[in-house]
């Protein structure tokens, strides 16, 4: 008897693996990603009403606050979540959606999505090579000006020291940004 009960507990506590195709099927839609973001930020196993979730997603989609939403904006997102997205996510085992009560919570299988959900978008990626190219260009310009204008050794060393300090600063910021992204 105890073995069957412990097996059932183990099955419930270990989330089922999702295929990569299923993960990308879920994450390809921005509404589903927003649902996952919102539910992830709640307390463990906390349920949220469909209305509250729809308001949050609608506010993000319309770049406004929940207080400034129109009823049509709310309704459009509510209907989409109720009829399409939440049932699909429930079928895939990512959320627990009680359609009768209108409650949603994150399911254990959602943990497989979080590593993909938190990756920076292309818009958030910093093109560090541009910063380094600008600093290098400034260094080359200083060297060119020193040859043309005949800067003294002290002035030239000061200016080139500033270029090196700028490279060091950019490298430090680059390292910090990468370290935070990996954490």
UniProtKB/TrEMBL annotation:
Q: Name one Pfam family in it.
A: DUF7344
Question: Per its UniProt record, what Gene3D superfamilies does this chain match?
Answer: Winged helix-like DNA-binding domain superfamily/Winged helix DNA-binding domain
Superkingdom of origin organism: Archaea
Can you tell me where the transmembrane regions are? 131-149, 155-177
Q: Which residues form the DUF7344 domain?
A: 24-105
Which controlled-vocabulary keywords does the entry list? Membrane, Transmembrane, Transmembrane helix
Record protein name field: DUF7344 domain-containing protein
Q: What is the lineage of its organism?
A: Archaea, Methanobacteriati, Methanobacteriota, Stenosarchaea group, Halobacteria
